[in-house]
Amino acid sequence: MTSPYRELLSVPGARLFVAAGFVGRMSMSMVGIGIVLLVSAVTGSYGIAGAVTATLCVAYAAGAPLSARFADRYGQHRVLVPVVLANTASFGLLIAFAEMDLPVWTLFVAAAAAGLSQVSLGAWVRARWAYVLRDTPARMHTAYSFESVVDECIFVTGPMLVTVLSTSVHPAAGLGAAAACTLAGCLALAGQRATEPPPRPREPGTGGGVWRNPGIVVITPVFLMLGMVFGAIDVGGVAFAEEEGHKALAGVLLGCYALGSGAAALWYGARHWRSPLSRRFLAGLGLLMAGLIPPVLVGNLYLMMFVVFFSGLAISPTIIPGFGLVERLVPQGMLTEGLALVSTSVGLGVAVGSSVSGRVVDAQGSRAAFLVPLGCAVVAAAVGLAGARAMSKRELSSRSLAE
């Protein structure tokens, strides 16, 4: 580990909340697959399984920013404990309803409850970094880079773990393990009071929440498009590997994409940047768009692994300054809410992108499906460019206030 990351983890309490966050966030890459494997096993329908998963995603997109808002206002500990207990109970009901072969509508009710009580734990951890590094804000880009590496590790290991458990142990084992990870990680994080950001009562005139900020109005749809890129790449990659006769290598192909992003995050966080966050964010969007052109043209699996690695190099240099902009643009009393909003936008985008890409695969094949992430990246870059002035203006004003 390079020196900046070693110094980062030497911050008092950092190792503990990073470990808790890692365990608690494992579920974000496991829940969707776990539900599909469980529900399809008991109903025999992938359509029902996908609909139940989509219900959870929509409920999560609605509930996570709300719980984050309460965390900003009342403190993480007071909010996290009851919410995660409700989440564990909801997943327990979902598993029980599936195993008891109850009417299908009960699965949707339980999935909605689980989604509403699922927190965007990455946002809560990033808010802790902002608090413990409040005296050295220049190190925040290193912290966000580190968190991006953690996310990539989760998305590489989580799907493999849930698949093995659900196919080799029991159809419900994968989803049960995901719920257990959420419970253990959230309770561990809630117990760490020394690094918990202090509660900040809502200031007068902020009734609209983070949506009153023009910069957030720009960043949120961009992150939604980025989520669609990720979801479409996942589906297109699996379909491409199957069409090439090597479906078993689909995980390796997607792992190359994640590996590229993780490598870029390590490099990005170890550098000291002087250019404004908004400029880096726009540059990342441009690189992401350019990097998604080659996959449309490639027709060989092993060459595709090489290509998507370089496509993945643009992910972290886009996501990291995006989170940095949120941290810069929103007041400290709304930071967790703002971070959760963009995080859930990514999650919602993944669900939409997966669905759209799947339909294109069915109609035109995997080669055409790679046009979906490219199109989403073009829209993301266009939205970012159109809102560049709003982002840079708010960034400059917040920087002058900090100084």
Automatic annotation (TrEMBL):
Top-rank taxon of the source lineage equals Bacteria
UniProt-recorded Gene Ontology molecular function terms: transmembrane transporter activity
**Membrane-crossing residues?**
16-40, 46-67, 79-98, 104-125, 211-233, 248-269, 281-298, 304-326, 338-356, 368-388
Q: Does the keyword Lipid metabolism apply?
A: no
Q: Which Gene3D superfamilies match?
A: MFS general substrate transporter like domains
What keywords does the record list, in alphabetical order? Membrane, Transmembrane, Transmembrane helix
Q: Which Pfam families match?
A: MFS_1
Checking PANTHER family in the record gives: MAJOR FACILITATOR SUPERFAMILY (MFS) PROFILE DOMAIN-CONTAINING PROTEIN, PTHR23542
**What is the protein name for this chain?**
MFS transporter
Q: Which organism is it from?
A: Actinomadura rubrisoli
